[in-house]
Amino acid sequence: MGTVPWREALLLIAFVVIGHGVHAEQEFEMTIDKLERMNDNGEYFTYNYTYDKLTELKYSVSANLHQHKELDNSYSVKALMARADLAEGSEFEVMLNLQKPLCEWMTTIYKTYFYEELEKVSNFPHYDTCPLPATEYWMKEYVFDYEPYKDMMSEGRWKIEMMMLKGDVVCSGILMINTVKLKA
Fold this sequence. Notes:
By secondary structure, the chain is α+β, with helices and mostly antiparallel strands. The protein has helices at residues 4-18, 102-118, and strands at residues 28-38, 45-55, 58-67, 75-84, 93-101, 136-145, 156-166, 169-182. Strands 1-8-7-4-5 form a five-stranded antiparallel beta sheet. InterPro entries: DUF1091. It comes from Anopheles sinensis.
């Protein structure tokens, strides 16, 4: 499950650029303002990652993840995405709040949105794998390109939270805050 925060973060980034209005003929740029681990005491995962901005709308991500415990369907994955206007102090409005048991997440969201892309650049597990055994995972130079979605972009601040939970307790997760602005 150490891989799930990355997969879900990538999916939610896609929702960031396609989810909030259509503005044809406008050029946007996106910046990652914050990318940090949540509730990460090393009990479940240790990992490192790099991301490089290739263009205004293209990023390359690499990661090494070590999952320390077997993860079964007693864990769940939660994805939360919210958007705020660019104005300072604007409140975030929740756009997506989805939570599923791990095995269901693997056979639905992961299978549909991640597996085919990530199998080319990682050793992430097959979508039928559950429970997820304790092991090491890697992802090398996964390029996420927002260019195909540029006509659907809108300005705003976007907050994405991906979490693995055991009951109501967050075991691990990632928080990402992005800004999408009209290109100057």
